[in-house]
Amino acid sequence: MGGLHGLGLCLALCFGAVIGSVPVRLVGGRSRCHGRVELLQNGAWGSICASGWDRAASRVLCRELGCGRPRLIPAPCSPPAADGPPVTLQWVQCLGQEPALAHCVLQPRDAPSCPSDRLAAIDCEGERVEGCRALVLEWGGSGWAWPDPKSRPAEPFGLRLSGGPGRCAGRLEVQRNGSWGTVCDDGWSAANAAVVCQELGCREVPAELLGDQPRFGPGTGRIWLDDVRCRGQEGTLQDCAHRAWGYHDCTHDEDVGVVCQDP
């Protein structure tokens, strides 16, 4: 046992979760964080129509499963077998901040049918053990023990504007895992900029006054985010839809700039 000092033993029990009073599972996917969404209701598993599933619902479920955030593109998923579970929910309505899917509005199916290739599926970034229902043993001075979950620091996220005239204008840079990187301008919008300005404590500049996309030169290091899509009400850029962290098809010549007004 002495040779295992400093190591952790993780027994992850995360293939499904009981979300509030609604058990849920992902099936037919390549990992436990990807697949067709099925919920257990009235003792039977059922699917959800894709037309009634959106990114807000995906964000809630990915978070509840301990799988980070949803990827930008819709999740492809193999359809159920002919004798697979029926569609039991027509749509799920979430705001995105709910602690569990059971806190969203769940509408029972009221349409005659839902095509099997139009079933709700999610593709989350990946496993985040601190969010899972996991059992973790860590070695301490007195032997193996259960760690206090509160002692695990939250993954740091930072945001700043660099290369500009002040803290409210510049090249957008975000911090992930202690490393600063840039954001690609693919799909960048005024709603995205509004979220950034608010998060920095700056004031938004009306889009009609900005003209062309502002540039503050290429950055260095990782390009952390691409295809960011905000609605404008998010409290942090982290909550906007985007590709998985570090996945992009950009160069630093496409690093996005943001101009806000000083508070």
Automatic annotation (TrEMBL):
Which keywords does UniProt give here?
A: Disulfide bond, Glycoprotein, Repeat, Signal
Task: Specify whether Disulfide bond is a keyword of the entry.
Answer: yes
> Got any disulfides in this one, which pairs?
C94-C104, C230-C240
Assigned GO CC terms: membrane
What's the protein name?
SRCR domain-containing protein
Q: Which SMART domains does this chain map to?
A: SR (SM00202)
PROSITE patterns for the chain: SRCR_1 (PS00420), SRCR_2 (PS50287)
Q: Which residues form the signal peptide?
A: 1-20
What are the SRCR domain coordinates in residue numbering?
24-125, 159-261
